Task: inverse folding
């Protein structure tokens, strides 16, 4: 199972924390393995600080692993040079905060044209422009021309995240690491952006690693769910299985924490009963 | 291209009273320095009667040696502006190299560059400049250059970049961890391109403020050096005018027209540049723009609502 897939094998990452003379080691990620297949979505679920984003940053080559490998089509991800460029062309990332991930100084066109031209050096200016417009329209920013010369601060959060997705697609990526792509967006826009991501996945046969703390969207959006707790994967399996029949108590706690329509108003009633009892 | 203009407008400070007054002051002084020497009499012509108060013939009177003060002021302003510009630009370039490289790359490069910066920062400025100036001016083989205002400007630039470098380093360190820099790396941008295309444009207001600060420091530094007799000896600046006034005992002979004009010119230039800097500060830190309004609102609310007044101003 290595050809045409993005595999994380026995990945560990330690951070050294220095406070004064004392040095302690934080195991942010320990011995994590999973595989993302083209056209499929793996959701990585866990609370803040559980190591989800560290895995994303290691896959995107923003951090180096302490041990273990990230394998693309069976070959370990390279560290530098042309091989790293080729790796980046295929593995791209969408960041959490659409307000911080676009450079306020540059136009939307710059954000998409740069990766296009970096990874397709032969592209002329006119061609790059045409493909930029095409990419903008693929993420439902239509008509694309009207967005070219705008700056990030002129767009809404959802529109910015669409630009970030277009930027990730620009090199021609086969795998996308989406690090909490909707957690900073208004609730009403989240589904739109996730639907867009799912549509693109279908048409481009993308493999997606969807990182989130929200079990509900993880279930709707992904094929497989991995639950992380303090750097370790504590539960994994097909999405419905993990949600409907959680084995680990942490997964159960996560599910309890999610808003459940059946328990609507329960908390309010509890508070009311108690305050009446106190009277 | 509309695109280009948008990016420039984006960086411009808001039109405010401070900015307008500052720009007008600096603009008038610069215009005076550029245009007045063209029609003023020869500043090195000592054929006039000495120590005359202002008159129709000599607008600002004459010095003890018979130089026309107006002509000297015009040429001196030009000389001081030149020293300020060259010194400020030198300091800015050094600050960019030291500050941004240290801030962006971090690690041992940061340690080495910041060690150098900190050394420059703690050495008392004027004595160091005096030592270097005295040393260089006596170095043989430099010829005319040894006594030129360009050399003085370079010395002031080389000794005056450390403070700006610390400020730029802090900001570069902060920008380095922004997600758009990480995104540029994921997209495959190289290190230098990230510095110059992704980070540097966002530092432009800060660099502009540091440049203006550097120009101010160089003008004042040159005035100080010249006053001590270590300034450029083959050109006229506001500082050399003050030095002449001092050695010629202008104060003792009540020749106010000799020392007040160059002193006032330095003070006005400093004020104008500071006002521009305050306006730029408001782009770097938008809270500064809102602070006076917030304070006013709180005062009004306290008055109307009869609340316990005062309190922290946002």
Result:
């Amino acid at each position: 199972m290595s050809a045409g897939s993005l595999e994380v094998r026995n990945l560990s990452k330690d951070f050294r924390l220095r406070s004064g003379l004392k040095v302690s080691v934080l195991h942010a990620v320990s011995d994590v393995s999973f595989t993302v297949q083209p056209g499929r979505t793996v959701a990585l679920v866990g609370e803040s600080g559980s190591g989800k984003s560290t895995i994303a940053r290691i896959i995107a080559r923003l951090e180096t692993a302490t041990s273990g490998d990230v394998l693309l089509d069976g070959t370990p991800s390279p560290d530098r040079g042309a091989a790293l460029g080729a790796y980046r062309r295929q593995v791209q990332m969408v960041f959490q905060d659409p307000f911080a991930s676009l450079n306020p100084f540059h136009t939307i066109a710059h954000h998409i044209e740069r990766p296009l031209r970096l990874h397709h050096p032969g592209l002329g200016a006119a061609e790059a422009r045409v493909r930029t417009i095409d990419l903008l329209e693929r993420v439902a920013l239509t008509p694309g021309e009207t967005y070219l010369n705008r700056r990030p601060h002129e767009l809404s959060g959802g529109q910015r995240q669409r630009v970030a997705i277009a930027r990730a697609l620009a090199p021609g990526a086969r795998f996308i690491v989406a690090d909490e792509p909707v957690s900073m967006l208004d609730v009403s826009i989240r589904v739109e952006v996730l639907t867009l991501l799912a549509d693109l996945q279908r048409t481009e046969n993308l493999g997606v690693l969807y990182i989130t703390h929200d079990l509900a969207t993880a279930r709707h959006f992904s094929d497989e769910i991995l639950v992380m707790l303090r750097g370790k994967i504590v539960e994994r399996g097909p999405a419905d299985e993990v949600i409907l029949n959680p084995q680990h108590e942490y997964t159960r706690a996560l599910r309890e924490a999610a808003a459940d329509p059946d328990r609507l108003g329960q908390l309010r009633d509890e508070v009311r009963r108690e305050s009446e009892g106190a009277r | 291209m509309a695109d280009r203009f948008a990016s420039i407008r984006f960086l411009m400070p808001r039109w405010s009273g401070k900015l307008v007054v500052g720009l007008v002051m600096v603009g008038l002084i610069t215009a005076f320095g550029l245009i007045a020497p063209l029609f003023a009499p020869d500043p090195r012509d000592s054929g006039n009667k000495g120590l005359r108060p202002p008159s129709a013939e000599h607008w600002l009177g004459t010095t003890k040696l018979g130089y026309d003060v107006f002509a000297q002021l015009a040429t001196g302003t030009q000389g001081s502006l030149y020293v300020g510009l060259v010194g400020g630009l030198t300091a800015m370039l050094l600050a960019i190299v030291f500050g941004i490289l240290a801030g962006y790359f971090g690690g041992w490069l940061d340690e080495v560059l910041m060690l150098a910066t900190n050394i420059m920062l703690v050495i008392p400025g004027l004595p160091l400049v005096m030592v270097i100036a005295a040393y260089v001016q006596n170095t043989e083989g430099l010829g005319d250059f040894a006594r030129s205002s360009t050399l003085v400007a370079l010395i002031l630039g080389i000794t005056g970049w450390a403070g700006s470098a610390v400020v730029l380093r802090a900001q570069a360190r902060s920008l380095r961890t922004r997600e758009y820099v990480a995104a540029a790396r994921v997209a495959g941008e190289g290190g230098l391109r990230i510095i110059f295309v992704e980070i540097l444009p966002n530092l432009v207001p800060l660099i502009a403020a540091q440049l203006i600060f550097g120009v101010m420091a160089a003008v004042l530094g040159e005035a100080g050096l010249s006053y001590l007799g270590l300034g450029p000896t083959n050109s006229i600046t506001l500082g050399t005018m003050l030095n002449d006034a001092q050695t010629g005992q202008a104060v003792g002979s009540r020749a106010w027209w000799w020392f007040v004009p160059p002193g006032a010119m330095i003070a006005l230039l400093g004020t104008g540049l500071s006002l521009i800097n305050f306006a730029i500060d408001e782009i770097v830190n938008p809270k500064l723009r809102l602070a006076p309004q917030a304070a006013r609102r709180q005062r009004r609310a306290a008055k109307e609502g009869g609340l316990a007044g005062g309190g922290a101003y946002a």
